[in-house]
Amino acid sequence: MSKSLNFVVSIKLDRRSVDVNGNHPIKLRVWNRASKRVKMYSCNKFSDPATFEKAMNHKATVKGDTFVLRTYLERVLSNATDVLEGNVVKSHEDFEKFMKVFLGVKIEMILLLYILLKRLLDSQILMVFLKDFKQNMIK
To answer: How far is Cα 63 from Cα 89, in angstroms, rounded to an integer?
Structure first.
């Protein structure tokens, strides 16, 4: 059950502006039902209207860049929904604060995992493990 029933999140193509390639920015739209305010947050992605519509149409099968865009936008929407369901959000400022914490924790985890994997790859520990694993699989 959502703790923040006054908020609705969706993904929109912001046609008010265009980049140098003619693509529009994609934004996370957060609507507060109580205050009747809408705030748009950048998803750091740009798309043309046809590709955006194709990515958002879940009845269509997509490949390549459109599939990557669909997956990314679903993840952004999922993260925003998780923030609203897991916290008591009363304003857009609260949403921004919780979203930064939520994304910050994920970024820190990814960086930690990257550092650990890099150290494993640099050391011979992984090579010995893989060699033993391969020998055990052959037996």
So the answer is: 36
User: Residue for token digits 């916290």?
Assistant: 87
Nearest Cα to Cα of residue 52 among 81, 20, 24, 10: 24
Within the chain, residue ranges assigned H as helices are 49-56, 64-86, 92-122, 125-138
- Size (the chain), residues: 139
Q: What is the pLDDT of residues 71-121, one digit of tens each?
A: 888 888 888 888 888 888 888 888 888 887 655 556 566 667 767 777 777
In single-letter form, the type of residue at position 22 comes to G
CA 122 to centroid of chain Cα atoms: 30
Q: How far is 59 from 91, CA to CA, in rounded Å?
A: 34
Write out pLDDT tens, residues 23-69. 999 998 999 888 889 999 888 889 999 999 999 888 888 888 888 88
The full set of domain ranges for the chain reads: 7-108
Whole-model pTM?
0.67
